[in-house]
UniProtKB/TrEMBL annotation:
The chain crosses the membrane at residues 67-85, 105-125, 538-560, 566-591, 612-645, 657-675. The keyword Transmembrane applies. This is Uncharacterized protein. It comes from Gynuella sunshinyii YC6258. The keyword Phosphoprotein does not apply.
Length: 771
């Protein structure tokens, strides 16, 4: 009765678990993986999606499996006969059924199971083989669910990893506050509104167009691209100030003194937005983000206005209350919150537009007839650059450049300006700010800070740093290094073409002067010969440099960016190989259940097979984990390298004399380091499936993807070096041959011309000579 209660309690849990399992492991009959499995195993694969499969073999593996299963069935019968015979003898000898060696409960059950597993089921395959296919098929379903979950997350959050926000919220607020204090201070000292704020304007080809009236933050903005400015400008121009001053003078200056301080006397803020793809897919979210950023700056400007007035008032009136110490920090925190909300909203909208465009297929685009969700897990490696493009676009979008221009010389020369800046400085020392270490408001003088490192890396390290920054200009370091490779290749091709043309021209001139001979040829020969040798040496020096640089550049420009796809394809091929191996071994594995050794349902000999079957089931999903983990690991390791590489290299160089060789060596070390990191990181695509099952006692199923990729890399580099070397030899031969043929032609032409001239002069002499 107690057992029945336990079963009744556990049954709903088991049913719900099986329903949840089915929901995440179901496979679309049109899935590409199933399509490819049908090529290998025939239509028996339809069993995975609930079909029955063919009665007769419709694949070569099925036909061969039918014979193998028949042999294993016979072998199972022999094992059963052996166990039965030894069991009878042991029973007679020891007085126990089957003897003490065999379990009377599990051994008979395992024999029956073994017979059932090797019986033909469909298409020539046994029950055990069908079971392996079914398990692998639902592993495909689990992988597809994992892939869709990743796409859903990217669509919802807008990015694979958070973009780097370079906005200095406090600096922006302080510069606005400085401009506000400048504006209200000058107006207070002049007792007249001479400076006014113009918060939001579009700057188009240096023409400022107002899109929002002063003092309003809720008015709708027109679509904005590129540059936006808010200014603190003079109310009067020179002519207007003169007229206003004259009128005020006649009436005794009852409303203060009108003056002109020129253009933007109290500074300006210009926001420059990145120019990104403005296609219809992301046009709306990009413009929405830009408008929200502008609105956040405008709101910050308004929030700091009352504080600026308080600072100015406390400067001119000692009885006025001290400015609110919390006002600045509150305005900064509100600005930061609105700015980050604008980013998060835009990231989600842009990622939804981008991912939905290619994840479900796009028949209008070449090569995009099958989307990522349609193709399933097997195509994950093909979408690496699309995922990185989403991150690159979002990173570029949030990288808003703010140009903060302070008060001009006209404002600085105001008699009372410095007193207002002193008031601002006094407030800055006593105001509350947010401590980054604790996240709590503290006095500005008590905030945690780190000492600035004023040491310089020197000229060489500065050049190395600039090249590294160029290499890492993209959010994804693989894309940045690809850019470096393309620059090296383009520069080499241009330089090689120029050197070839120079060498050809110099050598043609040298051979021509030799062919002409005489006084002119003899005088020109030393110069042309020297130029020919110099250009030839330069050409071969450039070819030699190409032998060193081009293989590396080709690796960076083409092979390294293809590494994720290569390793992914290797991983997919490894899974197919593993599945084929498991299907072929399934009848043998089934027979191992009939072995009498061990206790329990499985037995001693069959345990290892279950670990392999679990690996077949989990490998596609684990490969996806490795794929995304590798993308994140590359970024993390890049940050580690940037943290320690330049300081370590600077310390290593020390006081040594540095030059071009040092710079090249540093860049070489950096390139090798990044390449090794990339290969180590993307190796997670196969290392995660290979090694995860070790934690439950499974063996390391190393399918050799890494070694295969390294062999491909060696072939690629070796081939590139041979191509460059062969091109150099061909260029040399053609240069000398072309120069020689051109020189021969030029020399022959000059000799013919000289002969014709000589004949003509002879005839003229005869005509003019006296008879």
């Amino acid at each position: 009765m107690k057992t029945l209660k336990i079963i009744l309690i556990l049954l709903p849990l088991l049913l719900s678990s099986s329903g949840a399992f089915a929901s995440i492991t179901d496979v679309d009959p049109q899935d590409k993986s199933l399509e490819y499995l049908r090529y290998i195993f025939g239509s028996t694969v339809d069993v995975i999606t609930g079909g029955t499969g063919p009665a007769n073999p419709d694949s070569v593996l099925g036909a061969m499996s039918q014979i193998l299963n028949t042999g294993m069935l016979v072998f199972t019968g022999l094992i059963i006969g052996y166990v039965f015979l030894t069991g009878v003898l042991n029973s007679a000898h020891e007085g126990n059924p089957l003897g003490r060696m065999y379990s009377t409960m599990w051994v008979p059950l395992r024999m029956v199971v073994a017979l059932a597993l090797v019986l033909p089921f469909s298409g020539g395959y046994s029950t055990m083989q069908i079971g392996v296919m079914w398990l692998a098929g639902h592993g495909i379903g689990l992988a597809n669910s994992t892939w869709n979950a990743a796409l859903d997350h990217i669509t919802g959050t807008g990015t694979l990893y958070p973009p780097q926000i370079t906005v200095d919220y406090e600096n922006t607020a302080m510069r606005i506050l400085e401009s506000r204090v400048c504006m209200h201070g000058i107006n207070t000292a002049d007792r007249h509104i001479n400076v006014e704020e113009k918060p939001v304007e579009i700057v188009d080809d240096d023409q400022v167009v107002s899109v929002r009236s002063s003092g309003t933050t809720e008015a709708p903005l027109v679509p904005v691209q590129h540059r936006v400015m808010q200014r603190y400008d003079s109310v009067y121009g020179l002519a207007g100030a003169g007229i206003a001053y004259g009128a005020a003078w006649l009436s005794g200056f009852p409303n203060g003194i009108p003056r002109s301080y020129g253009s933007n006397p109290c500074g300006s803020i210009t926001l420059e937005f990145a120019e990104i793809d403005e296609g219809t897919a992301i046009d709306t979210p990009v413009r929405s983000f830009q408008n929200k950023v502008i609105a956040a700056h405008a709101q910050l400007d308004e929030d700091l206005d009352s504080l600026a007035r308080e600072i100015v008032l406390s400067t001119v009136d000692e009885t006025a209350p001290a400015p609110d110490q919390t006002a600045y920090n509150l305005a900064v925190n509100n600005f930061k919150m609105e700015y980050q909300k604008a980013i998060s909203d835009a990231l989600s909208e842009i990622a939804s537009a981008r991912v939905n465009k290619w994840a479900g297929g796009n028949p209008d685009a070449a090569g995009m007839t099958v989307g990522a969700r349609d193709a399933g897990w097997i195509s994950v490696g093909a979408w690496y650059w699309d995922l990185q493009r989403v991150n690159a676009e979002t990173q570029k979008m949030v990288s808003v450049k703010a140009e903060l221009v302070g008060p001009t010389e006209a404002a600085l020369e105001h008699d009372d300006y410095q007193s207002f800046m002193d008031g601002l400085a006094a407030y800055s020392q006593n105001m509350l700010v947010t401590d980054p270490a604790t996240g709590t408001p503290v006095n500005a003088l008590e905030r945690s800070t780190y000492a600035d490192d004023n040491a310089t890396l020197g000229f060489v390290m500065g050049r190395v740093e600039s090249v590294i920054n160029f290499a890492l200009s993209e959010p994804d370091p693989v894309a940045g290094l690809a850019n470096v490779g393309h620059v090296i290749i383009g520069t080499f091709e241009t330089a090689l073409t120029a050197a070839f043309v120079s060498d050809l021209a110099a050598c043609v001139a040298d051979d021509t002067s030799e062919a002409v001979g005489g006084l002119i040829g003899g005088a020109a020969r030393p110069v042309t010969s020297t130029l020919c040798r110099m250009t030839n040496k330069a050409l071969w020096s450039l070819v030699g440099a190409g032998l060193l640089l081009i293989p590396i550049a080709l690796m960076l420009a083409f092979y390294l960016p293809a590494t994720p796809m290569i390793l992914w394809i290797m991983g997919v091929a490894g899974w197919f190989v593993m599945l084929i191996e498991a299907v072929i071994a399934a009848p043998i594995w089934a027979v191992s259940h009939a072995m009498p050794e061990g206790s329990g349902f499985i037995g001693e000999r069959a345990k290892a097979g279950y670990m392999v079957a679990l690996s077949v089931f989990l490998r596609p999903a684990l490969a996806i984990f490795g794929f995304f983990a590798s993308m994140l690991l590359v970024i993390v390791m890049l940050k580690v390298v940037m943290l320690i590489f330049l300081p370590a290299m600077s310390g290593m160089i020390g006081d040594s004399i540095s030059g071009v060789v040092t710079a090249v060596a540093m860049l070489g070390i950096f390139t090798v380091l990044i390449i090794q990191i990339a290969h180590r990181a993307f190796g997670l695509i196969h290392e995660v499936p290979d090694k995860v099952l070790r934690y439950i006692g499974g063996g390391s199923e190393n399918l050799g993807e890494a070694s295969q990729e390294q062999q491909s890399r060696s072939v690629f580099v070796g081939g590139a070096a041979k191509v460059v070397g062969g091109a150099g030899h061909t260029m040399r031969d053609k240069t000398r041959g072309g120069a020689q043929s051109m020189a021969d032609a030029a020399g022959s032409g000059l000799k013919n011309a000289a002969g014709a001239a000589k004949t003509g002069m002879s005839k003229i002499s005869k005509m003019l000579s006296p008879k």
